[in-house]
Amino acid sequence: MGISSVDELSAVFTESFLEVISTSAGIKLDAISSESDTEFCTMTAAICLNGRKPGMLFISANESTAKILCSYMTGVPIEDVTKEDSIDAMCEFANMTAGNAKLRLGNSEFLFTLSPPFILESKEMSITTKKKIHVISTTFGKSDIKIKTKLVY
What we know:
With about 150 residues, the chain is an alpha+beta fold. The protein has a single domain, classed as 3-Layer(aba) Sandwich (Chemotaxis protein chec), CATH 3.40.1550.10. The chain is about 35% helix and about 25% strand. It has three helices and seven strands. The protein has helices spanning about 5-25, 65-75, 85-105; strands spanning about 30, 45-50, 55-60, 110-115, 120, 135-140, 145-150. A hairpin with a 3-residue loop joins strand 2 (about 45-50) and strand 3. Helix 2 (about 65-75) crosses helix 3. The longest helix has 23 residues, at about 85-105. It is globular, with a radius of gyration of 15 Å.
């Protein structure tokens, strides 16, 4: 695959994320404009992409969205989904998205190995990078679901 820019790389991760959500949770999300999205980013699944061009993938949502997605993914009634279940689901979404993107990238210069996914929790968390780092952020939504991806390369 001839990926030559971070924008093309971002498109691979976006397609992978949307496919994972659609396949595993049965939800078709749309890219939406979100002026202030810090209020819904209380739970962030992160995974390190280790390679010649290292990076990170972040998938952020609030606990309510994480519970909805977990319920759709597992078939467990939403009222029975625990916080631990939501954490597991968010980590699995990050892991499957990164794994799917890795397969799509084949032997490109963006080839990477994956760290185990992990969760960051905070109501006031922000991700700041130094100059010349590419950060591509997209917010997706559908009815009461709002979820954000951030690719840092």
